[in-house]
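Question thread 4412

I'm putting together a teaching handout and wanted feedback from people who do this every day. The idea is simple: show students a protein as raw sequence, then show them the C-alpha cells that encode its fold, then repeat with a second protein so they can compare. Below is the first pair exactly as I plan to print it.
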Amino acid sequence: MIESLLIVSAFLVGIGLYIAISKRNFIKIFIGIEILATGVNLNFIALSVAKHYQFIDPLGHAIVITSIVLDGVLVGVGLALALVIYRRFGSLDVDKIRKLRW
C-alpha cells in the first residue's frame, strides 16, 4: 500500500519536473509545477502513514493542508500573471518574453 503511494508520488514528481523544465509556454510550466506539488503532497501523506503503522501522524496532514491552501493562492496569482503577460506581450512563450526585457 505505502510502496504504491510512493511510486505514484515519484511518478507525479517526475512528470511535473519534466513538464516544468521542457516546456516553453507559461501555462504549461505552471501546470507542471502544480503536478509536482501534488506529487509532493502525496509523498507527505504516504510517509505520515509509514512512520507508525498503528496510527497516522497528523503533522503530515497539517503540512499538506497548508500546502493545498498555498497552491490555491499560487493558482490565482499565476493565472492573473499569465493574463497580464498575455495582454502586455501578446504571447505566453517564455523565450519571447525574456527577449523583450530592456
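The second pair follows. I'd like the answer to focus on this one:
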Amino acid sequence: MNIRLHLAMHEVVAKQVADDEPSEVYETAGRRLDAGYDRHEVLHMLARPMASLIHATLTYHQPYDHARHVAALGALPASWEPQRAQRKLESAHRHRSRASRRRRSSSRP
C-alpha cells in the first residue's frame, strides 16, 4: 500500500473516533480495544470498511452509504481475522528475511 494513503486512512479513522462521527466507529473501536486488540490494529480494522467505501465512491461514483458502513463495522472482527493472519505471516517472513540478510552480511570479511 502507498504510505501516504496508509497514513491518510489512519487520520480519517482517528478523526472519526475522536469526533464520535459516525458513532458506530467509536463504539466499534471501544469493543475491539476491550476485546484485547491493540490500538494500531483497531485503526487498521476500522480503516478497512472506510477504504472500501472510498473506493466505491471514486470508482463507481457511489455516495457514502451509512448502512453499508455500519454493517461492515458490525462484521468486525470476523471479517478482519483472515487479513490479520495473513499480515502476521507476512511480518514473520519479513523478519526472517531481514535476519538472514544480517547474518550473511556480518559473515562477510
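Top answer:
Good format. For the second protein you could add a caption like this: The radius of gyration is 18 Å. DSSP finds five helices and no strands in the chain.
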